[in-house]
């Protein structure tokens, strides 16, 4: 990678990874909590919802968190079955392709996991490839709308964004409450904006934003941050590409 491009990306990452990033991003919702379990549950639900119109899904997430907070917070809402008494909603539509019944199924699967494990982190085995843990995580939610099939070639942007939140330490944005996965194992979460920015900067020649593209972009970011390549997510988010 050219030195000037490295310098630009480092500068962009420093500018974007700040407290000001939190407002307007779905990570704002787990930032409402101090308890690690509430952070994890809120983070997973917030990442699951984060697609389409940011303005709209943030509003819906705010409503969902108000409902969960009335039950004592996201973790208690899931563990005590608050999702079994969802508000009536005409045609059952929650957001775009999601229905209230999809949200209920997501919470049901979360509850089932917490009956067997202390944390979603327990699905990840230390020193094993992160993709294995993602496969197990997707298997637990197999059939839930919005969760890719186990072994999918999708970039799986929302799950890798959730993992970034849980794993990266010393960040004003990310929480770093997991220890079974290291920051060096993370992949850059690739959405349309990140993909086109990376392509414009010559960081990938791939023709679609799939898992191989995410790995390729992550390898480029590891040239700058070998122990923390997902920092490249902030760098690409803030890059100005003509």
Summarize the structure.
With 242 residues, the protein is mostly helical. It has eleven helices and two strands. It has helices spanning 3-16, 19-22, 36-49, 54-70, 74-79, 100-116, 130-140, 157-167, 192-200, 211-222, 232-237; strands spanning 93-95, 98-99.
Following the backbone from N to C, one meets helices and strands in this order, namely HHHHHEEHHHHHH
The amount of beta strand, in percent, is: under 5%
In DSSP terms (H or I, runs of 4 or more residues), the helix count works out at: 11
Lateral arrangement of strands in the main beta sheet: 1-2
What's the SSE blueprint?
Layout: H1 3-16, H2 19-22, H3 36-49, H4 54-70, H5 74-79, E1 93-95, E2 98-99, H6 100-116, H7 130-140, H8 157-167, H9 192-200, H10 211-222, H11 232-237
Antiparallel strand pairs: 1-2
Helix pairs in contact: 3-8
List keywords for this structure.
two-stranded antiparallel ribbon; 2 strands; 242 residues; globular; mainly alpha
What this model shows, in words?
The chain is built from 11 helices and 2 strands. The protein has helices at 3-16, 19-22, 36-49, 54-70, 74-79, 100-116, 130-140, 157-167, 192-200, 211-222, 232-237; strands spanning 93-95, 98-99. Strands 1-2 form a two-stranded antiparallel sheet. Strand 1 and strand 2 (98-99) form a beta hairpin. The model has no long low-confidence stretch (mean pLDDT 93).
